[in-house]
Amino acid sequence: MASARPKFTLAALVLASMAAFALAGHFAATRFIHNQQAHHLDELTEVVLRRSEFAVDFAAASLDKLAGRGLATCDPGSLQAIRLHVYQRSAVKDVRLVNSDGSVICSAYSETLEFDKGWVERGDMLASRDSRLMLFRVEQFGGDALGVLRDIGNRKALVAILGVNASLFDIMPAELRAHGEVLLALNNGAQLGKFILDPDKALSHPVEFAKSSTRYPLRTVIRINRTVLSTWNTEAYWPAMAVALALGVLFGVLLSRTRRVEGPVADLDRALARGEFRPYFQPIFDLRTGRINGCEILARWLREDGTIVPPMNFIPLAESSGRIEAMTWQILCRALADLQPHLKADKEFKLSFNVVPKHLLSTGFVETLRSNVAAAKVSARQIVIEVTERDELDDLARAAAVVRELRDYGFRVAIDDVGVGHSGLSRLKGLGANTIKIDKFFVDTVTADASTTTIVEMLVALARDFHMTVVAEGVETEEQVCALISCGVEEGQGYLVAAPLPFTKFSELVASRRAAIAAAAPIDGAALVA
Ligand code: C2E
Ligand code: CA
Ligand code: CA
Q1: Pocket test for ligand 1, best of 325, 331, 353, 354 (most atoms within 8 A of CB)
Q2: How far apart are the CA of 356 and the centre of ligand 2, in A?
Q3: Domain ranges across the chain
Q4: Which of 17, 116, 202, 486 gets the highest tally of CB atoms within 10 A of its CB?
Q5: Residue of 518 and 477 predicted with greater confidence
Q6: CATH number among 3.20.20.450, 3.40.30.10, 3.80.30.20, 1.20.920.10, domain 263-529
Q7: Per-residue pLDDT reduced to its tens digit, 62-102
Q8: What is the pTM of this model?
Q9: d(CA 293, CA 379)
Q10: Alpha helices in 161-314 (DSSP H)
Q11: In 433-461, which positions are buried (b, 16+ CB within 10 angstroms) versus exposed (e)?
């Protein structure tokens, strides 16, 4: 379940991130839509205002034209000409000649005067910014109109009667028409035109958009039912949410990656806390008799989900992150507990374990080792500390002092990976170890390459001179066993006998081999190994 855990963590992160982005996306999309709606309705209000201004401009231009043609009179010919003019301009419903106080003198369509409900006095009219025009409401039966007055000299004026409703009708988007109203009013509040589909249906909590003209005393207002805005122009919502969710997934994955970059050390700590680092046992055997004389314990990380992580995938990180020491003790203590009966029963049986030089040189290493071994009721003589020669031992003198101390307590020390490391052969002597382990690199070629045979023979001779024993690593074939025996090597370790095994398997192997050796007469080791 340990690898289900990162998957779970990833899924949890992605879900959490999606939820956060969905929430943010919802708010962002809602806000965006709201802003879009507000912008749209604001523009519509502006359009209503521009149309109204344009209608006033249009009326003013008509009045200018009539005045320019000298038609500001009530004679039948002028009125006829004015009627033709009105006929050609749909927005203008009528043109009247009025006194300077605003009272009507005559009208192009005199019968329209009957539709008037009232007529404001000049004092109630509102001036345009340039003061050339006066605007006022013309209350009529069948709807209000806008009066636009233009003075002709000091005593008379022409008034155009504008119907404004038509220009307001088509402004509302179809979806909103039944849920809103459009108003045109004078700045004094006098309403000029209003579009509402159902006048009897009051708007509930309307949102209002209003605009005032800078040139004319006009004001337009659009009011919309707040509820209809939740469904109008919301097409952007789901695409925005989709983008937000996609960003959520992306962010979640990135976040989990980021966590993973800094996560392996935390993974190591969790594994240490759960005791997931376990020893695997690989036999070290007598090349001649095939007898298993001991074993090397090799670290495996048994994750919760059952996967087994090889040491090269975590030892370097454990070393660089300072977790190697705790990990080493965890593995050793477990191995000591497992092997204690074997070690007690066979005093010649040796347990080898790997220690990185940094750990060997760290304060308290010897004391901790002693107390762990003593606590397991195992003799120090049966414990071999393997120190690799791959990484240069930068403080050989100190290392030698530690080795001496270890040996004084009865421990044995092996130099691992001999032949491929940094130390020259003379340095091997300086360390004062008990054993050298010849690297698999030489074993691989010992049957084929004469120069390898020479090197192995040389190493064996050197070991003898320094009273050291020799173990060959990575022994896979009987030919290699024969070649190593003829070079003088005594012990071997390799897949030929067994790969590193979990304790129960290792224990079975040791027992069956003992039984086989006891049953058989002393025979050639290579044959027994096979
Ligand atoms: P090593 O100490 O040289 O261990 C021998 C390695 O060679 C082991 O690999 C073993 O499985 C492999 N091996 C043994 N016989 C054969 C063979 O016949 N053929 C082949 N192809 N390989 C063979 P493993 O267990 O993967 O360990 C690799 C290295 O990781 C070890 O090399 C050692 O340097 C390091 N290591 C393993 N466990 C520990 C530990 O507990 N502490 C420390 N500090 N290092 C460890
Ligand atoms: Ca080793
Ligand atoms: Ca080795």
Answers
A1: 354
A2: 10
A3: 16-258, 263-529
A4: 17
A5: 477
A6: 3.20.20.450
A7: 888 888 888 888 999 888 888 888 887 767 888 999 998 88
A8: 0.57
A9: 15
A10: 165-169, 174-177, 237-274
A11: bbbbbbbbebbbbbbeeeebbebbeebbe
